[in-house]
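User: Fold this one for me? It's DUF1839 family protein.
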Amino acid sequence: MERGTESVLGTLTGGGGSAALAIATGARPGELHGEEAIWQETNCYMDLWIELLYGWGLDPRAALAFSVTQDFEGDHFTFFKYPQADIEQLYGTIVQEMAVYDTLEAHVAEQVGRGHTVLVEVDSYYLPDTRATAYRRGHVKTTIAIDRIDTAAQRLSYYHSVGYYTVDGEDYRGLMRLEPALRDNGDLLFPYAECAKRVRPPLQGVALSDAVVSQMRRHLGRRPQRNPVSRWREVFGDQVSHVLVRGDAYFHHYGFNLPRQLGANFEMLGHCLTWLGEHGHHVPASATSGAATIASETKVVQFRLARAVARGRPDLCTETLGTLEAAYDEVIDGLLHTFGSVDPVHG
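Assistant: Here's what I get for DUF1839 family protein.
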């Protein structure tokens, strides 16, 4: 495809610089972003990949075994995302960093024209789908996945968060850094971009099921050596005091990076366990129920912290954290008993 023409992947819709929900409806196994979800949004990179896999007609639940590796990192819970090796093994898709040296538009057009999807860090200031938060208000980094572009019309379509959108006009020029203030600013670094290349058919049937079990065993071998909720409890009181001092704006950052990441991660694990059960594997009820408990009780923690900030009084969430701690042990013990683990070095 020559630049300046539209991607072979389809006709773009929308206009006037506004984002229009455009994803086709169809079968969405598990409906990870559905109304029944406890955490309808996880993090921008994870949500993007979920929607991208759905867009390719694939089941994103199969590749969620990695979620057993989440740890407490001291100031946050692991920012979880699909490992590239797992994406390649299950879905036949290679994800590699792009070399960006020309205009971003030129690189995106080249790769999309080859049938690939470009994942690129952009400024939410130019994303109309963030109208409720950052659009035209603040400069917030996020990742989108572009699979259609028309450089002549200055229009592109992309996956972001829990949807699929189209943008054009001034927003297109902002995202592609074509506005003079962005294009001619030598102090701006090139954005980080990845190219997702579908190089072989995804696994299916028994081959897929066996690969998921293998991934579960391997990731269980990479699990934290100590219950991460226990480690969080040890510093929770100090962190709550800090949140109260910093106020509401800081609480939102804390809530996203701790209770949300922990809860959403284990909700994703629950989806993987459901997938395994649907494909003939025994999954202990304690692991499934424990994952659901972590997903729901972390939301309780977030609500209680929000109330504590509003009242200006600390809440140590002692009982809730105890429930989370016990649930984590139930999940991991049940999965180890059922699937075992493989040493990541010697396995």
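One thing worth pointing out: The two ends are 45 Å apart (CA to CA).
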